[in-house]
Amino acid sequence: KGKLSKGDGERARELLMKALNDRFPGLRSEAFKATLSLDIGGGPGETLRVALGSVHEDIRREVFVETSAQKREDFAWPLLLDMLADPAPRLRNEVFSFALKQARGKKVVELIGRALAGDHVDLRSAAAATIRSRKEEGLDGLIFEALDDDNEAVRREALTTLLVIDHPQLSRALGSAHGDVRARVALARARHG
Predict the structure, then answer these.
(1) Which of 75, 135, 153, 190 yields a CA-CA distance of 20 to 30 A from 5?
(2) What is the pTM of this model?
């Protein structure tokens, strides 16, 4: 891999970012390869982060592929978490699924927490639903955070999770600021005594 002087590096970075955002996929692909080979960010994680700034999903997908191939590197996990904010629904959900398969213990809680805190309803709903099948310590607090989400679909997923896992603190949801949550909890308690 080549190294550039500071001045050359800044100019190269500008040109490569322009090429990574070009409308022609072939040019973007070559720019991505050049970004990696020139180590334009100063290290593999930083270089991938530069390419992640592309407006085109195909380049951001390449960043995901490279990151997943280097999943054991220190830079990979933070970069995967940042990719949860990707504007492309399919890509961010692929990143979430991949990261969930890789995560254990506190990383699961961190991943689900980041997804629940994101801007995208689809990912927040998926994160709330994922809690049903996980047993990591710390997820209880996240499910109650999801119950307070601004979006009704996310709250519904969170409440369904609480009901499915038969959470011992289900009655805590009666204090929710959201009427839909309080009504469903009251109905569930009435059905089950």
Answers:
(1) 75
(2) 0.89
Q: How far is CA 181 from CA 126, 186, 187, in A?
A: 18, 9, 10
Longest dimension (CA), the chain: 72
Contact partners, residue 73, CB within 8 Å, separation at least 6: 44, 45
Phi-psi region of 56 (alpha: psi -120 to 50; beta: other; left: phi over 0): beta
In this structure, the dihedral spanned by the alpha carbons of residues 106, 148, 115 and 75, taken in order and rounded to 10 degrees, is -50
Q: Rounded distance, CA 140 to CA 135, Å?
A: 9
d(CA 155, CA 142): 12
3-state secondary structure of 74: coil
Task: Return the structure tokens found at 127.
Answer: 């994160």
First and final CA of the chain: distance in angstroms? 67
Q: Which tokens is 43 given? A: 């290290």
Q: Tens digits of per-residue pLDDT, 171-192? A: 888 888 999 999 988 888 888 7
Three-class SS state of 105 = coil
Q: Collapsing DSSP states into helix, strand and coil, what is residue 54?
A: coil
Which burial class, exposed, middle or buried, applies to 128 when counting CB atoms under 10 A from its CB (0-12, 13-18, 19+)? buried
